[in-house]
Input
Amino acid sequence: MIRQRKAKHYRIIVMDSDVKTAKQLVSVLCKEGYRAENIEQTSRLFEKIRSNLIDVLILDVDAWYKRGYELIPIVKSMDRLLPIIVTSADDSIEVAAKVREQGIFFYTMKPLDMQEIKIALKNALNRRYTSRYTSGLGKQEKLGVVDTSEVIRDNAEMCDINKHLNWIMAFFVHECKGTLGSVMMNISALADANISQRISPAKQNAMLLSSLCSLGMLHDMIRNYVISYRGENKRLQCSRRRVDVYKRCLEPVINEFRPMLKKNEMSINVDMKGNRFFYCDADLMKIGFSNLINNAIKYGTACTDIRCKSLTTDEIFRLSIWNEGIGVERERLDDIFERFIRFDKVGINGTGLGLHVVKMIANVHNGSVKAESGYLITDTSVTYDEFYSNPRLAKTDRTDLKKFARFIFEIPSSGHQQKGEV
Amino acid sequence: MTEQKTILIVDDDKDFLEATSIVLEKSGYSVATCLSAKECLAKLKSMKPDLIILDVMMETDHSGFDLCREMKRLPETKDVPIIMLTAVDQKYSLDFSSAAGDESWLPVDEFIDKPVEAGVLVECIEKLLAR
Output
């Protein structure tokens, strides 16, 4: 039997960027009988972990210059079994994904529900001391060839991973069902004589077009999820062959997007320069182009043009896709290729995997993809860096300025390598 | 002649708003739409809908719940029936009781899971407005 310690023996460290919340949390936990303490410096946190003076860490991801989640792997490398309860004021899916996939014990949003924290804490301590107890046993007793502590540790980690996977699946299902929502509404209305007889033929066509676009998006979401999963498991294969990049990859993708372009009254201007042929994986390239064009349409301004330029030489293939639209926020340009990052959460369906998949495809070709964004000044694209480094422009009122986004996808020649596996 | 009823749809999915608006307008309702909880609260200052269709996950995972509570608190909207229409599966994904604070308290009149057929939604609206 595991001997339960009294609450006062348990040492809880709170690391929170908000002094008021930290004080309140420490006060509540102390009243519960815990030895709770708020610390601000990471050096002190690491010292506590090294000295084994911590049983549970309650970490605010906004702490440590809003990069508290980066502390999680460091903490876990120092004490793999230390339960971490993470709190955050940011309830975006991006932050939740970043945090949850690191195998934390519990994740909760601010404002904190103290009752929920107390329950999570109790469960975290149960896990901590079950693991420690059996870990101690493991040193003396062996179950055959398997160390008990290893089993407990693996089980605990598996539990965290499962929680994360369930959460990812729930998010993915939500996005797919949401996209199906408009398809079902449109098609069922058209199939219902009572409703459809009152809808004009032009509106009926618009409803069919909208449904077709939504189904295309649904297809892309599922495909990106599968590709992303393969990539995460290092099972994304790249078979390079000599292909006509325009005919084999770009043109079919543009044709697939005709309904979506029509719906948004947009068009694509294509400017191809250089050779026609390049060694690459045509199927993966099509997926990459598809995601880039999809992105440009989704986040582009209706009734504008998307500019697609490519250059193929013996050394490189470069494709840039430009659109006028909501742009990419300056501070998000670097992390826009991470999983579940979306330009804008309101009004547009999507799982935030498209650009991540583009990056994976560039990587398996030993290439790269980068994002640029900024303002349109008299129809000239001025990147944020150019804009803010120009004293005259930096003073401009930005309220009514249009924005652009440009993605540059570049892969080097393989030296006519026939097949590469990553 | 009976007065035309107004339905307010709050959902962050533009395509869904468009499709549902067509269906409800052709079913004889006047329709107003909002893409976010914030926009909805602003709109409610100038209009009083007869029924509200509300999504759960918009700006945040819980914004539909928060908006629902707020509308049930406001004197102008506290008696307006609410249909919660969402792709969040009540049975399998989000823990509704913990997300809503208290499942029994969640003051919606009907819960419908997306995707839903147009006829089913119209029937549900008719039933609630006839009460």
In short: The beta strands of chain B are 6-10, 30-34, 51-54, 82-86, 110-113. Chain B has one domain: 11-129. The first strand of chain B starts at residue 6 and ends at 10.
